[in-house]
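Lab notebook, entry 326. We have the chain sequence and a SMILES string for magnesium ion, and the next step in the workflow is to get a structural model of the bound complex before anyone spends time on docking refinements. Request logged below.

Task: model protein plus magnesium ion, output structure tokens.
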Amino acid sequence: MAVPVMEFDRVCFRYSDGNSGGSWALDQISFSVEKGEFIGIVGANGSGKSTLAQLMNGLLCPHSGRVTVLGGDTSDKRCRERLWMKVGLVFQQPEQQLFEETVFADVAYGLKNMGASPAEVSSGVQAALRAVGLEPGEVGKLAPLALSGGQRRRTAIAGVLAMKPDILVLDEPTAGLDGPGRQSILRQVKQLQTDSGTTVIMISHSIQEVLALADKIAVLEEGRLAVWGTAREVIRQQLGRGASSFLLPEWLQVLRRLRELGVSAGGDAVTREEALEEIWQLVEGESNERDKAGSLHRREYSHSPSGPPNQVDRLPASGQLDSARL
Ligand SMILES: Nc1ncnc2c1ncn2[C@@H]1O[C@H](COP(=O)(O)OP(=O)(O)O)[C@@H](O)[C@H]1O
Ligand SMILES: [Mg+2]
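Result returned:
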């Protein structure tokens, strides 16, 4: 049987300065991660995502329960001392922590601290920059401040990748980036997981972002693990428990709203394709109904010069459905 690379067992954590109102930032969290898996962690602001990330590499230790990472208990100091190399944590807005004079020096920082030789540092930095889609020859000598916001974010991620961590934890790596910037980071992180077998744990405030990428997804709510499972399991559970709409992808928000409006779909859609199919069938069913109603009205109103009143509002075509408006 596969040995988990990370295991949370009934973990509770509370900040001691009382800012969290005396309540648990994390409450009875249990889950485990296998080697090479891609885990998505989603939840609203303040649900405990960043706290969870810091428990993963021993920056924080649980008040009760146990966190085991790569075979060691993070409450053990010797275990924590080696974890900073093995579990690469990319903080929220990591670009704010770039401080060296050049991009090369910044990406090299952690690798140097690990005791790598100058040749290892040079090749490691180049590989890490390429892995995040930056050309070392173009950006290496630039000051981080000369880069765009998206490039600075990639530079910070490269600094962690250069250390070749066994487990990569990314805290909202796409927040604040534009659509193409987001897509390219997601693609590169997924590629890293499939090419090098790195275990990836990615935090996001949008379930949509992790649905297609993650093997398993955790939904945090007020410090509790509300839902845990594969994408399909998580969506089914979310729908079943009437979870808030923002934790559903747009296409399921549309279906749910249609059902609330009394337009019955009766399907079991989970993926985007399934949902589009279900919406399409609804639209077709609705226009068949309209046609029937229309021919009825034509018969009833055939004597009227103005024709039948248009009583059946037509649903927009699936591509035009606007979840915000619905
Ligand atoms: N350094 C801190 N000191 C005190 N309370 C904190 C600190 N960081 C986070 N919290 C509190 O812990 C809870 C979880 O926060 P956090 O893990 O940052 O959530 P998320 O990343 O999901 O937004 C929140 O109630 C937050 O206010
Ligand atoms: Mg956070």
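Notes for the group: The chain has a mean pLDDT of 85. Worth checking against the assay data. The pocket of magnesium ion (ligand 2) is lined by residues 49-50, 92, 171 (CB under 6 Å).
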